[in-house]
Amino acid sequence: MQKEGTPTSRRARISTQPPRVETVPRHPRYVYVRRRVVFGLALMTLTYSLYLGVTLVVALTNQSYGVSLSARGAEWGREHGIGWAVTWVEQRYYSINKPKTGGTPESNQFGSGSTAVDIPRTGHLPAPATVLTPAKTPQPGEGVWHPVGRKTASGIPAIYEAFIRPDAVHTSYVVGLAWMDPTLLEAQLYSGSFIPGGGPYRHSAPILPKTTGILAAAFNAGFRMQDANGGYYTDNKTVIPLRKGAAAVVIFKDGTMTVGQWGRDIKMTSSVREVRQNLDLIVDDSRPVVGLDSANTKRWGATLGGKFDVWRSGIGVTKNGALVYAGGPALTISALADVLIRAGAVRAMELDINTDWVQYSIFTAPLGTTINGGRGKSLVPSMVGPPSRYFTTWWNRDFFTVSLRPSEATVTTTTKP
């Protein structure tokens, strides 16, 4: 028998005692829930940031988002819910980078070529009268119309161009005007997957070669539909509900185009083929609409309003039904309205704005010849968008074309008895 207190007995006593376990204090349940929520939010933020980064890179390489990287970034921002930030940045930019005042443009910016043509007196609208410039002293050739582009088979001009300055302050800039005769031309609205969205549509970019034998011109339409405060109708369907009172470009089934206030000047009938609305009229009864200088973004555009001097475009209709397009730099909405009135518009509306979107192309080639963007020229040489954009598969915005009427593309002869 071992005595108590020997090493063996002490080991035996120790081994019979339960091991000592260190316990970790438990946190309340809400702590674990909070950790999971924080982790989930961090994961979602990381995923969304990666998504934004990828989509931004894609947008910056997407030609349909504009020519410049700044335009592409702006379009991306508006598509991803930060349009308010894009508008704020644009407003700050244009507030600082205002067009210069004073100065004189180069003399070659007022057009060239013939101003008088020997044409029959009937079968078409009379040529437009010289446009009086808003600048104090007209420059040589300012406001004088020149026939451009394809003529009818009998040699009658269907489009004329002229150039004037936007106002009496920004006198070094030039705005282009295009006058179109609807008795010789028929219009077509081309719709895009981005503007108005949806589709497919019967007429979308690219302009097909088989239709270019009589193509005369192509030009931009209006704002993105979420900014246009209006509707869209084509292919016998209402893509976006039409708003009563909105400014509208309307094309009838005979190819005639006009501009007016929807519900007052034009209503839906069986003869209407296409309707493209954009904001409100800026010219009515040959006068500028009251309130153009106000900051009413709903009427004059949620992006920049009407006070900034930027690239703008617009279209109007004259008393005898001719169409007048205006596009160029250093234009407020008031200046755009004034320019269109000087060109003879009795009703007019704004189309798109900013350098990347204002584009009017005139096409030249013998009648019946297949053409592409390489056979066209921009109304104003400094328009950054090339005529070729309308002939590409990636162009996903809506636009208008005017082509010679088939009856004007062939020479008719009479045989004497």
Describe this structure in words.
The chain has 417 residues and is an alpha+beta fold. The protein has 2 domains: 29-96; 107-408, no CATH class. It contains 7 helices and 18 strands. 42% of the residues are buried. The model is unreliable at 412-417 (pLDDT under 50).
Element string (H = helix, E = strand): HHHHEEEEEHEEEEEEEHEEHEEEE
Return the structural class.
alpha+beta
**How many domains would you count in the coordinates?**
2
Global morphology? elongated
| Strand residue content | 15-25%
Number of helices: 7
Largest sheet: 8 strands, antiparallel
* CA(first)-CA(last) distance: 155 Å
Please tell me the overall pLDDT: 86
**DSSP E strands, number:** 18
Strand order of the largest sheet: 1-2-3-14-13-15-11-12
Instruction: Write down the Rg.
Output: 32 Å
Q: Which percent range fits the helix content? A: 10-25%
Which spans have pLDDT < 50 for at least 5 consecutive residues? 412-417
Topology:
Blueprint: H1 7-15, H2 29-60, H3 69-79, H4 83-96, E1 146-151, E2 157-164, E3 175-180, E4 185-190, E5 215-220, H5 225-228, E6 232-234, E7 237-240, E8 247-252, E9 257-261, E10 272-277, E11 281-284, E12 287-288, H6 297-300, E13 310-318, E14 323-331, H7 333-342, E15 345-353, E16 360-363, E17 376-378, E18 399-404
Antiparallel strand pairs: 1-2, 2-3, 3-14, 4-18, 5-16, 5-18, 6-7, 6-10, 8-9, 8-10, 11-12, 11-15, 13-14, 13-15, 16-17
Helix pairs in contact: 2-3, 3-4
What tags apply to this protein structure?
417 residues; alpha+beta; 2 domains; eight-stranded antiparallel β-sheet; five-stranded antiparallel β-sheet; disordered C terminus
